[in-house]
Write a structure and sequence with these properties.
Order of helices and strands: HHHHEEHH
Number of helices: 6
Shape: extended
Number of strands: 2
Strand content: under 5%
Mean pLDDT: 87
Low-confidence stretches: none
Radius of gyration: 28 Å
Keywords: Membrane, Transmembrane, Transmembrane helix
Helix content: over 70%
Strand order of the largest sheet: 1-2
Largest sheet: 2 strands, antiparallel
Structural class: mainly alpha
Number of domains: 2
Distance between the termini: 85 Å
């Protein structure tokens, strides 16, 4: 436990508190004109985007297909819209409906709330597959063009060498 005490003593708490205070001031200036009803939604979307941006750093160290699937799953879970369950028609994250239904023991409600998340995940996987196919086609075409340019350059150099040999 001494290492923990030493770690806490060595932290620049004043600097950290200044950064947090600046962040709070920046956030309050950002949302000062936002109506109170829209503030939770804005905070959720902002936090979700922050999580997805930070997830990019994690995904980069993973194999490409697994990282892409993890990122698609995170996007589907965080950004799929659902209902607030209040009957007012307000938009809320679908994962909140799933969590509410599971906590209330309503498994059929949890499954029906999970279906939009699953649909968005499948669509994102499909878009990712199309992206990978297009990327592969583009890379193959670029490689063919480079190989063709290399062969043409070699032919030109060979013709120059033959002309120089005929002159001498």
């Amino acid at each position: 436990m001494d290492w923990l005490k030493n770690l806490v003593k060595s932290l620049p708490l004043d600097t950290i508190s200044e950064y947090i205070a600046e962040l709070v001031i920046w956030w309050s200036n950002l949302v000062k004109d936002v109506p109170d009803n829209d503030l939770p939604f804005l905070a959720y979307v902002g936090a979700s985007i922050l999580v997805l941006l930070l997830l990019i750093f994690v995904v980069r160290v993973m194999p490409r297909p697994i990282g892409g699937m993890l990122w698609a799953l995170a996007v589907a879970v965080l950004l799929t819209p659902g209902d607030t369950l209040t009957g007012t028609g307000q938009i809320a994250p679908a994962v909140a409906g799933v969590a509410h239904s599971v906590l209330m023991g309503d498994m059929s409600g949890a499954v029906s709330a999970f279906l939009p998340i699953l649909m968005v995940f499948i669509v994102l996987l499909f878009v990712g597959a199309i992206w990978q196919v297009l990327r592969g086609v583009i890379e193959v075409n670029i490689a063919k063009a480079k190989e063709k340019a290399r062969i043409q350059e070699q032919k030109r150099l060979l013709e120059e060498a033959e002309k120089n040999a005929q002159k001498s």
